[in-house]
UniProtKB/TrEMBL annotation:
CDD domains: NfsB-like. Residues 10-186 form the Nitroreductase domain. InterPro entries: NfsB-like, Nitroreductase, Nitroreductase-like. It comes from the Bacteria. Belongs to the nitroreductase family. The keyword Translocase does not apply. This is Nitroreductase domain-containing protein. Keywords: Flavoprotein, FMN, NADP, Oxidoreductase. Pfam families: Nitroreductase.
């Protein structure tokens, strides 16, 4: 745990990446597995994660991401896209996955599926979309923490035009919406912000004990 805190102090939202340094395939698989194992409500994982390496696509994305240079300079770009208007289809697929993974009849857990449907599918579409978007933040947290453990830099981003990102990546046709972006790679030695002291609220200000 002491190393975890040490690595959290080491990490920061990298402003300038070294475009010559790439994440190894081995480390990329660890980051992907960390995202895959993230917690989510009901375990549904109501999102997809698009990993963009194609330099032409990333050049198209940069202008709609407020011109941020990390989009093109980082080793990899992760786009967390929430499922739009999630419904019975996704829940049924999840129930089938549980049954197969745990080796149990699907009918044994049909009640759990019905419970999820009663809580989710009747919600207004905008409420559902807001909820599935929030789930991507949990996955992002796992990515940031895993990257820090590997001494890989990462920058979470909300500064982009989601509709334009959706158009460029063809997400609309997939029933997805770009919720978050994270650029991942290695900090450039010229990135002066890496030397800034981390600023956070004190424990006394942040926590309330009842």
């Amino acid at each position: 745990m002491s190393n975890f805190i040490k690595h959290q102090n080491w990490r920061y939202a990298t402003k300038k990446f070294d475009a010559t340094k790439k994440i190894s395939d081995h480390d990329l698989e660890i980051l992907k597995e960390a995202i895959r194992l993230s917690s989510s409500s009901y375990g549904l994982q109501p999102y997809k994660v698009i990993i963009v390496e194609n330099p032409e696509l990333r050049a198209q994305l940069q202008p709609v991401a407020w011109g941020q240079t990390q989009i093109t300079e980082a080793s990899h770009l992760f786009v967390f896209a929430n499922i739009i208007n999630l419904g019975d289809k996704e829940i049924n697929k999840y129930i089938a996955n549980i049954a197969e993974t745990r080796g149990i009849p699907a009918e044994n857990i049909s009640g759990y599926g019905d419970f999820m449907k009663s809580k989710i599918t009747s919600l207004p579409e905008d409420v559902k979309n807001n909820w599935t978007s929030k789930q991507t933040y949990l996955a992002l947290g796992n990515l940031l923490n895993a990257a820090a453990e590997l001494q890989i830099d990462a920058t979470p981003m909300e500064g982009f035009e989601a509709d334009k990102v959706n158009e460029i990546l063809g997400l609309n046709a997939l029933g997805l919406n770009a919720s978050l972006i994270a650029t991942v790679g290695y900090r450039h030695e010229e990135d002066a912000t890496q030397h800034n002291v981390k600023v956070r609220k004190s424990k006394q200000e942040l926590f309330i004990n009842l």
